[in-house]
Write a structure and sequence with these properties.
By secondary structure, the protein is of the alpha+beta class. The protein contains 15 helices and 39 strands. Helix 7 packs parallel to helix 8 and helix 10 packs parallel to helix 11. The structure holds alpha-D-galactopyranose (GLA).
């Protein structure tokens, strides 16, 4: 178990409970990829590197070095020397020439995992994770590349990152630094990725991998609504339960590329990293560049095991907040209730009525500061608007606390309104290109977080508010994507660093926030779910999933999000109908059932709610208290997908000790001539006897998993049911 190096055959073996990853060295020191797949007790040999086949390795057949390099399965391919597939590292030397060639120098294996400087990254203690660092060098450039691999045994995860150091005499330019590469033989792969839009995030798509390159990416400065830093290659016929899956997810919140390339030899190269367009990094002698981390997993039991590996991994080894494994307070957010139109009296009345229904926290959303009564002003002026909130935030907090409720607040610290005192005082603090009018989006610009004084200002605005009033939750929003990438403080030859420097700036400020306020419950958000990624999960245990709160639209959004992110991280609220995003009316119960698969909360004007709906809130609150431990910590099973069958949706969460399972079934559209639907469960003890709560009906786990149970027919559209099976024997 763990990681070892077999000196004789020069093979590194990285084991997790169910997988093995093998790396081999060529005689010249090229670092090759032998195998990633199900666990091997006896390692495969490096003959799989095909070094004995023509064109053979350069030390045997130097004449065909180019052909060799264009074919050899590389762990970390470089550009400019003859491997024409997608490279992971492109470097330009002081003469302006591109080219880099990495050869093995040494390696180090240790228990545990070191932090990545300035970046979010997974963690684990010595019993949980082992790390291999392979040091390679390009002697001409004086460049050292440290390829890091950490194997998390229990979760079947391998993380990868790369650190590039200039150990030479001359500076050079990094033009591309990816984080991970996987060279494999094609197995008729199909590619799964996530696509979307504002209020339609993370829909799953799948298609045949053809010759050439297929990719998802973002050049928007964030991980984006539109595409997602995740992809998987699967063998044909892969389902939730069967098939081989190779997946990569990126612990990064900025521009990315996730690409699969099918080559002339019918091999496949999967790469993941920071998008090279509009990226560059200047390295002076002695300086280093650290790539973000990629999270890899392999499953030979379909997508279901991939999902559960990611869920466990993120819950145990990425999300640091003390709330990760705690029930969060049920909140009510006033955004869809009031938008910008509120005052203390209105908020206190919402809180009072919410409290009566069992809700525990009021979150005051956008509009409490400066002179903001619409989205066109005041970002940057984080002082309370006393016309709306006389007595200020501490008075409001006192009023809310006096009701027995907690108070939370909204910020958008990375943006600046042209109509703000901050912009009038510091117009150069906005990202902009000299001589050009910067592009406004939602009437705002983006602050230049590459500058320390700007980050300090933004941080102090948030911290001052938190120091001055009893506020226990922050929703950190970011409502536009980046453009006009110019900074008043970066030299021309460093301007290509700006996208990445901005991401690093956001991480630094959030790190300060969670360090000074360790008890704060932080929820990230970005115009809904434009930055729902592992990078942000390092700082906040939950992220607002989407501005679309319609229960039916949420089925696909939450299915895609839960493909790799735990339900405990998905911000999900019950809102009012007709839904503000799509105008649909769904039963209040269904809205509750769908939100229970996330953090759970409300986003509506409870003072105007239909009394019959309002009467259901205490029941839903009780369901939350009853099931949240299970939903937050259990094993998630996707049992049916409306996306695929166009009829119904169904998922379940089983306790790790197999003592209970909660099934959520959404019928979606009603039809004539319907009969009940047979649902086969997973994650139970075959010989355990389970009772369907409230019915007295008992079945063995074997029957429930192999034959299934019947979800009843509902009358009317969008109806849903919860089914709780508890082990009685
Ligand atoms: C974004 C968020 C919403 C709300 C608004 C406020 O769109 O996703 O939930 O906070 O901003 O402007």
């Amino acid at each position: 178990m763990g990681i070892c190096f077999e000196e004789k055959r020069k093979i590194f073996k990285l084991d997790t409970d169910k997988t093995t990853y093998l790396i081999g060295l060529s005689p010249e020191g090229y670092v090759g990829h032998i195998y990633y797949g199900s666990r091997l007790v006896h390692p495969a040999g490096n003959s799989l590197l095909r070094m004995e086949e023509d064109p053979r390795t350069p030390s045997v057949n130097d004449r065909e070095k180019g052909t060799f390099l264009d074919k050899f399965p590389m762990e970390y391919p470089t550009g400019g020397i003859g491997d024409y597939r997608e490279s992971c590292l492109n470097v330009r030397d002081v003469h302006g020439c591109p080219g880099c060639e990495l050869r093995y120098v040494s390696h180090r294996i240790y228990k545990g995992k070191e932090k990545l400087e300035g970046l979010p990254a997974s963690f684990g203690v010595e019993e949980e994770v082992e790390t291999l660092v392979i040091t390679c060098a390009d002697e001409v450039l004086g460049l050292t590349a440290e390829l890091s691999y950490s194997a998390f045994a229990k979760e079947n995860i391998i993380t990868r990152s790369v650190r590039i150091t200039n150990n030479g005499q001359q500076p050079f330019e990094l033009e591309k630094v990816y984080s991970a590469c996987l060279d494999m033989d094609n197995q008729d792969f199909e590619m799964i990725s996530l696509h979307g839009a504002w209020a339609r995030e993370r829909h799953i798509q799948q298609g045949q991998l053809k010759y050439g390159k297929q990719l998802v990416s973002s050049l928007r400065g964030d991980s984006s609504h539109q595409e997602h830093p995740f992809f998987a290659l699967v063998t044909p016929g892969t389902t939730q339960r069967q098939g081989e899956v190779y997946a990569m997810n990126f612990v990064y919140s900025g521009n990315f590329i996730a690409q699969a390339e099918r080559t002339q030899y019918d091999t496949v190269r999967m790469v993941l990293g920071i998008h090279p367009e509009n990226f560059g990094w200047h390295l002076e002698p002695g300086e280093s560049f650290q790539s973000p981390e990629a999270v890899l997993t392999y499953s030979d039991e379909g997508l279901g095991r991939m999902t559960r590996s990611y869920h466990d991994f993120y819950r145990n080894h990425l999300i640091r907040s003390k709330y990760t494994h705690q029930k969060r307070p049920i909140l009510i957010n006033n955004w869809e209730a009031t938008y910008f139109n509120f005052d203390t009296e209105k908020l206190v009345e919402i809180a009072r009525q919410a409290k009566e229904c069992g809700i525990e926290m009021l979150v005051m959303d956008d509009g409490w500061f400066g002179k903001r009564s619409f989205d066109d002003s005041s970002l940057g002026d984080w002082t309370v608007n006393e016309e709306k909130l006389p007595g200020g935030l501490s008075y409001l907090a006192d009023q809310i606390n006096a009701l027995g409720m907690k108070l939370g607040i909204w910020f958008e610290p990375e943006c600046i309104s042209p109509d703000s005192d901050l912009y009038r005082a510091h117009p150069d603090w906005a990202l902009q290109i000299p001589g050009r009018d910067a592009t406004k989006s939602r009437c705002q610009y983006v602050l230049d977080f590459s500058r320390k004084e700007v980050r300090d200002y933004a941080y102090e605005c948030v911290a001052k508010v938190l120091r001055g009033a009893n506020i226990e939750y922050v929703k950190w929003d970011m409502n536009r994507q980046l453009s006009d990438m110019g900074s008043a403080c970066l030299a021309a030859d460093r301007m290509k660093e700006l996208f990445h420097r901005n991401v690093l700036g956001v991480y630094e400020v959030q790190e300060r926030l969670v360090t000074e306020f360790p008890d704060l419950l932080l929820e990230n958000c970005s115009g809904g779910g434009a930055r729902f990624d592992p990078g942000m999960l390092y700082y906040s245990p939950q992220i607002w999933c989407s501005d679309n709160t319609d229960a039916i639209e949420r089925l696909m959004i939450q299915e895609g999000t839960a493909l790799m992110y735990p339900l405990s991280a998905m911000g999900a609220h019950v809102s009012t109908c007709p839904n503000h995003a799509v105008g649909r009316t769904t039963p209040f119960a269904t809205r509750g059932h769908v939100a229970l698969a996330g953090t759970f909360g409300y986003e509506l004007d409870i003072t105007k709610l239909d009394p019959q709906e309002k009467a259901q809130i205490p029941e839903q609150v009780a369901l939350y208290h009853k099931y949240n431990d299970l939903v937050r910590e259990g094993d998630y099973y996707r049992l049916a997908s409306w996306r695929e069958n166009h009829r119904y949706d169904c998922w379940a969460v089983a306790a790790k000790d197999q003592s209970e399972i909660l099934v959520t079934y959404v019928q979606v559209l009603a039809e004539t001539k319907m009969q009940s639907r047979r649902i086969r469960l997973e994650g139970l003890a075959a010989d355990g006897l389970y009772e369907l709560e409230g019915t007295g009906c008992r079945c063995y786990g074997e029957e429930l998993m192999k034959a299934g149970f019947l979800a009843p027919v509902f009358h009317g559209d969008f109806a849903s049911g919860l089914y709780h099976f508890v082990r009685v024997e």
